[in-house]
C-alpha cells in the first residue's frame, strides 16, 4: 500500500517537538546564564566566547533551579517523543525514504546544494526528499543523540562516567551540549527557510497528504 507523504506518527511527533524544543532551548539558556564560561576553571576553552550576554527574552525559568526543573521536565518528554518517532521509523521501514544513505544520496545532495546556490540547475527530485534534505534530517537525529548523551553526562557525571568519558568528561559534555544546540538552531532556521520556499508542502504536515504523491524511483 502506498503511504501518505507524512504518516500520522510522523506528524504527531513533529508537532509535539515544536513547543518542547522551544521551552528546552529557552530554559537551557537560562541555565547557561548562571555560568556562561566553558572549560575547567583556570583552563577555559580559548575557542569558546566567555561571559557572553543572552537577552532575557530568550530565557525561561527565571533562575537556575527553576530553569533546571523546566529543562529536565521537557527533556523526558522530548526523549519519550523521540523514541516513539524512532521506533515508528524502524518498525515501518519509513527510515528508508528519510535517512541519508551515501551510495544513494551523496550525488543528489551535492546537486541539490548547487541548485539552491544557483550554481547549476538542481537535479529532478525523485521520491519524498532529495539527498540534501535526507542529510539534513539525518543530521538532526544525530544532533538529538548528541544532546541527549551529553545532557545525561552532565546530569550524572559520576554514575554515568563511561558515557561522560565519550564526551571528554563533564566540561567536554557541556561544550558538546551547547554546540549541538547551536547546530540544531541553525538546522531549524534552514528548515524554516525551506518551508517558506516550498510552502505548498506545509499542508502535508497537517493532513498527511495524498498517498503516493511523492512516490518514484529512488
Summarize the structure.
The chain is mainly alpha-helical.
Description:
The protein is 62% helix and 0% strand. The chain has helices spanning 8-34, 64-92, 102-116, 131-155, 161-166, 169-197, 204-207. It is mainly alpha-helical and 218 residues long. 20% of the residues are buried. Helix 1 runs antiparallel to helix 2 (64-92), helix 3 (102-116) crosses helix 4 (131-155) and helix 4 packs antiparallel against helix 6.
Q: What would you report as the Rg, rounded to the nearest angstrom?
A: 19 Å
Overall strand count: 0
β content, as a range? under 5%
The oligomeric status of these chains comes to: single chain
Low-confidence stretches: none
- Briefly note the structural class of the backbone: mainly alpha
Mean pLDDT: 87
Largest sheet: none
Number of helices: 7
What general outline do the C-alpha atoms trace?
A: globular
| Succession of helices and strands | HHHHHHH
Distance between the termini: 17 Å
* Helix content estimate: 55-70%
Which features characterize this protein?
62% helix; single chain; 218 residues; 7 helices; globular; mainly alpha
Task: Give the arrangement of secondary structure elements.
Layout: H1 8-34, H2 64-92, H3 102-116, H4 131-155, H5 161-166, H6 169-197, H7 204-207
Helix pairs in contact: 1-2, 3-4, 4-6
